[in-house]
User: What shape does this take?
Amino acid sequence: MRLLLKRLSLFLFFLLFLFSAYCQRYLSDLDSSLLYLKDTVRPFLKRFENLQFSGYIQPQFQLADTEGAKSYDGGDFSTFSRSRFMLRRARIKLDYLLRTEDNYPKALFTFQVDATERGVNVRDMFMRLYETKWHNFSFTAGLFARPFGYEVNLSSAYRETPERGRMSQILMPTERDLGAMFTYEDIRREAKNKFIKFDAGLFNGQGLSGTTDFDSHKDLISRLTIKSIPAGKFLFSGGLSLLYGGWRQGTKYVYEMGTANGDKTFMVDSSLNNVGKISPRHYYGADVQIILKHAWGQTEWRAEYWRGQQPGTANSTTNPGTLPTVPTYRRQFDGAFFYFLQNIINNKNQLLVKYDWYDPNTKVSKNEIGKANTNLTIADVKYSTLGLGYAYYFNDHIKLILYYEFVKNEATQLVNYSSDQKDNVFTCRMQFRF
Assistant: This one.
């Protein structure tokens, strides 16, 4: 009889997790369902009442225009392949929440791992401590999402399109970094300013591209978020983001845009004083979201714009994971993301339209790149992407996405970049989340 009761308790324990755990929509948010977990099997489950598991899996099939296509839809295709099955993401997330007597959060520990055919990687590992008198402030430390932008922080389990835009992936790879952050957010039930959230933190800067910080300089990242404000059938939200940082220059050679013999090109400063100086990495972002609710479900428009200064190398604008030992190239960049999401007939069917661009060097364009006697490269080429898709939501847990991306690079005088490359990609993805 005792053995039967133990087995019954274990069964109820897992049912509790199955029906109460859901992935959070935004990477930096607390899943509010954590506050309402109940201890239903005493005393066996008492020790587990603060735990919650969630996760999702995304198997998919992709077809590219050409073999070996370069892609930001899950990575480049292999040399002799233009089609592939892959496990894009498979994540399990554990949250352990301590609550006050009146059921407000007091402390949170989060651990998330991603396991695919490409390996196993930690995605989140942080603690969050809450101020419990006014319930206005919290402090987060560890490995967690950078508080910059809307698209970066929208969870891949909830994002309608298969991937984030090219600019997000280049400038904010893996979306996370090691650091510490303070947050203002009034979570009281009677709060009058519940629409406002402000995050500010210091981060190493290299994200998950390196195993340790290679310099002493830290990135200041902050975001002011205006949560959804209702106005009739509409909901309005938005935010302003700032990243103010940089990384150490490993050589004396620093290149910036200038003019030589009437041509735009990179000009070198080779002063010995450049070694060890911080090359500025400054981003400024703004975003807005508008939702219209109607009989079919809803229509949503999103717009987000970034601009700033990004250090890099001759052939790349990505942030290094180790101390650079090659000359530094400083570029002015900008980019944007635009979404149009439309339910069709009901909220199970959704039309997806997305357009984004990333211009890594706003000082030059088209035939100025690759011109004789200049040193501009593929790192200066502007890309734009138009995505068209359809999503079918079987239920709250399962959805199907059919999505085609038209990827276009500007025509330049560089070899292989005098016209648009054949790198469009079709994606068919199933997702299950719990």
